[in-house]
Amino acid sequence: MAKLWAGRTSGIIDAAADDFNSSIRFDSRMYREDILGSIAHAHMLGAKGIISENDMEAIVEGLGDILEGIEKGAIPIDPHAEDIHSFIEGELTRRIGEPGKRLHTARSRNDQVAQDIRLYLRGQCDQVSELLGKMCLTLCDMAGKYADTVMPGYTHMQRAQPVTFGHHLMAYAMMFIRDLGRIKDARTRMNVSPIGCCALAGTTYDTDRRMEAAELGFDGICMNSLDGVSDRDFCVELAAALALIMAHLSRFAEEIILWSSWEFRFVQLSEAYSTGSSIMPQKKNPDMAELARGKTGRVYGDLMALLTVLKGTPLAYNKDMQEDKEAIFDAFDTVAACLGVFTPMIATMKVNGENMRAAAAGGFINATDLADYLVGKGMPFRTAYKLVGEIVEECSEKGITLEDMPLDDYLMHSELFGEDLYKAIDIDECVKRRVSEGGPGGDSVSRQIKYVMELIDND
Ligand code: ARG
Fold first, then answer.
1. What is the CATH number assigned to the segment(s) 359-458?
2. Collapsed DSSP state (helix, strand, coil) of residue 238
């Protein structure tokens, strides 16, 4: 097919170069945005008298038919076309003739593609936001259910202090609610229209950029034409937000994998979200979590690719920018696929509260509470810390827990000990007494749930 840019040159290009140059493979998914953008452009050209009313109507009708045709599968997108913009313009002209050739007045593919990506990514932001909202809702729901399920909290993967499973889940809800905020912020910054910047230097026609932007739901317009066509910051920002979602999913995945191991047995994944082994009949593998962890690298790679594409490209448009789409589309596709599987995997997993409780009973995770008990009796914390360290060592040698040690033995270490020490180191009590804001105590977890739910509702 003749190139729409066959002007100075014949437009006949080497077949391999043609294929290399083409972006239709990955930009055809923006057909809808491209058509809606062109309809808005025709409306503006008509309203400003740049094209006639009749031409405007013919264009709008023709584009509407093409949209319907593509959606119904009646118009196949030509895989040899240069890109979606030239395919649709070519198809329009083939159908309606002369008026189709007037559509590209006061417009360039440079501002057109920049607008299409913004429009398309708006929808992608909404989809990922919805998935993040569902994840947060699931976590809040489960956190309420497991608000009293005591488990060990870890540092350095060593049992540290008691928390609850509900509190642990809410830590992830906090990460995902921040992710939601980041996507929302980036979407707001992205939602300005570059159309009318034209190739790079605006136009001599009396256009109305704001009218066109408003029809497409933009909050405003790009204020500098050179920046408008060459800005891909929003792709980088969004890829960074998506990379962070993957970081969070990957940390979560790592815990799910550990927790579902025989060594932990804190959770059991539902059969619908685990796989077996082709040789070991006993296996139930957390493949979904592992894949999410593995795919994190891809999204980090997408972010790096985007940053590197922008580095060193002079103003304004350069063909390097065509490389933006595969990276940002892949990042969105990957995050949506991961969240789509991860949330129901979490919602359906079986939580083994007894094993969590048993793990919390070992590992001396109430040692800090014992030190705090002595502080309550007047001992300086540093002295109490050292003394409890010695007691832990003694218990460990004897193979007993702090709860097992008789009062007489405690009294050998300090006269401050009394019968009430056993209540102070009771694991459930230890959690309940952690009343500081943001802590694992029941009231605090309820406040956390409320906080996250309110943020989702306001979204
Ligand atoms: N396919 C191109 C892209 O994705 C469209 C813009 C082409 N503009 C140009 N002057 N060649 O960036």
1. 1.10.40.30
2. helix
Per the annotation, the verdict on 446 as an active-site residue is no
Q: How far apart are CA 285 and CA 267, in angstroms?
A: 13
Angstrom CA distances, 196 to 200, 222, 227, stand at: 9, 9, 12
List ligand 1's pocket residues with C-beta within 6 A.
23, 27, 83, 109-110, 113, 317, 319, 321-322
Cα 370 from chain centre: 42
Fold annotation for 110-145+162-190+228-358: Fumarase C; Chain A, domain 2 (1.20.200)
Which of 277, 413, 414, 444 is labelled catalytic?
277
Write b or e for each residue in 140-176: b if 16 or more Cβ atoms lie within 10 A of its Cβ, otherwise e: bebbeebbebbbbbbeeeebbbbbbbbbbbbbbbbbb
Beta-sheet strands, E only, within 305-386: 350-351
List Cα–Cα distances, 258 to 252, 262, 270, 446, in angstroms.
10, 9, 15, 27
Phi, psi of 41 (to 5 degrees): -65, -45
Closest ligand 1 atom, CA of 27? 4
Percent of the chain with pLDDT over 70: 99
% of the chain surpassing 90 pLDDT? 91
Cβ–Cβ under 8 Å, residues 173 and 343? no
- Which conformational region is residue 183 in: left (phi greater than 0), alpha (psi within -120 to 50 degrees), or beta? alpha
DSSP 190-227: H-EE-TTSTTTT--SS---HHHHHHHTT-SEE-S-HHH
Domain ranges across the chain: 15-105, 110-145+162-190+228-358, 359-458
Q: What CA–CA distance (Å, rounded) separates 221 from 212?
A: 9
Structural fold of domain 15-105:
Fumarase C; Chain B, domain 1 (1.10.275)
The tokens of 431 are what? 């959690």
The string of pLDDT tens digits covering residues 3-53 is 877 887 887 889 999 999 999 999 999 999 999 999 999 999 999 999 999
* pLDDT tens, residue by residue, 68-78: 999 999 999 99
Q: Is 277 a catalytic residue?
A: yes
3-class secondary-structure state, position 252? helix
Q: Nearest-CA neighbor of 92 among 117, 68, 60, 115?
A: 60
Residue from 8, 77, 83, 87 to probe ligand 1 pocket by mutation (most atoms less than 8 Å from CB): 83
With bands split at pLDDT 50, 70 and 90, how would you rate the model's confidence at 1?
low
Q: pLDDT tens digits for 382-391?
A: 999 999 999 9
